[in-house]
């Protein structure tokens, strides 16, 4: 796990919502220290969030023993509870996944399944603990599929209580039938950089609003 430092904000309104925190769950299939396009894009999103005064950290999920299941703690060395605590402590959750066979990774699916347990966790007003938290996505792949994967993530994350901002994903898909990875590009495409910046601005803005005025009890 690594924790980039938040940069001084270039957004005059950011001070009113800082300090905000983000945690990125990187769902690559490659354990550290292998290179990962999902990790690269996640860090670029965190850098953009840092420009909005948001401190961030990353967790490469495959490096941890996250047991299968849908409870808060599956026991027997399960490392999900520690990862979950970082999510609960954060204002923004970023899920970054590669695309395999047109789908999110199996590691990402494990994360979504473990988040299902949040449906049973409520505060003293009966709200899910994830209410008031923002979720965003980052998707990479060498074929089309980013819209499908982000749609799946939006539904799953919203279903367990997170709020998705406008423009809630940054993504890159390479040309079909080719093998170039995002991490192998000579530079970040302008369209991706612009989308990532907008994602960060919107996510930080929404997280600040929700921190100051959470959803009402219902």
Please tell me about this protein's structure.
The chain has 218 residues and is α/β, with parallel strands linked by helices. It has one domain: 3-Layer(aba) Sandwich (Rossmann fold), CATH 3.40.50. The chain is 33% helix and 17% strand. It has 5 helices and 6 strands, in the order E-H-E-H-E-E-H-E-H-E-H. Strands 1, 2, 3, 4, 5 and 6 form a 6-stranded mixed β-sheet that branches. A hairpin with a 2-residue loop joins strand 3 (92-100) and strand 4 (103-104). Helix 1 packs across helix 5. Residues 8-15 have low confidence and may be disordered. Residues 28-168 form the NADPH-dependent FMN reductase-like domain. It comes from Jatrophihabitans telluris. This is NAD(P)H-dependent oxidoreductase.
Mean pLDDT: 93
CATH homologous superfamily descriptor: Flavodoxin domain
Shape: globular
Count of the domains = 1
Tell me the distance between the termini: 37 Å
**Uncertain spans, ≥5 residues at pLDDT below 50?**
8-15
What is the tally of helical segments?
Answer: 5
Helix content: 25-40%
Content-based structural category: alpha/beta
Biggest sheet descriptor: 6 strands, mixed
How many E-type strands? 6
The CATH C-level name is Alpha Beta
Oligomer: single chain
Question: What fold name goes in the CATH topology slot?
Answer: Rossmann fold
Q: From the alpha-carbon coordinates, what is the Rg to the nearest angstrom?
A: 17 Å
What would CATH call the architecture? Answer: 3-Layer(aba) Sandwich
Order of helices and strands: EHEHEEHEHEH
Relative strand content: 15-25%
């Amino acid at each position: 796990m690594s924790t980039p430092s938040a940069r001084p904000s270039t957004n005059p309104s950011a001070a009113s919502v800082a300090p905000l925190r983000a945690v990125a769950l990187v769902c690559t299939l490659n354990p550290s220290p292998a290179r990962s396009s999902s990790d690269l894009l996640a860090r670029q999103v965190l850098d953009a969030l840092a420009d909005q005064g948001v401190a961030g950290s990353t967790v490469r999920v495959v490096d941890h023993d996250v047991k299968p299941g849908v409870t808060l703690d599956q026991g027997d060395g399960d490392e999900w509870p520690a990862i979950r605590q970082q999510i609960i402590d954060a204002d923004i959750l970023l899920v970054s996944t590669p695309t395999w066979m047109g789908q999110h990774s199996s590691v990402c699916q494990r994360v979504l399944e473990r988040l299902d347990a949040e449906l049973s966790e409520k505060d003293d007003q009966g709200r899910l603990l994830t209410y008031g938290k923002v979720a965003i996505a980052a998707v990479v792949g060498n074929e089309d599929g980013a819209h499908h994967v982000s749609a799946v993530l939006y539904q799953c994350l919203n279903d367990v209580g997170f709020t998705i901002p406008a423009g809630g994903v940054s993504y890159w898909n390479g040309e079909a039938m080719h093998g170039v990875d995002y991490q192998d590009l000579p530079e970040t495409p302008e369209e991706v950089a612009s989308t990532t910046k907008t994602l960060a601005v919107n996510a930080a803005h929404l997280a600040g609003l929700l921190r100051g005025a959470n959803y009402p009890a219902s």
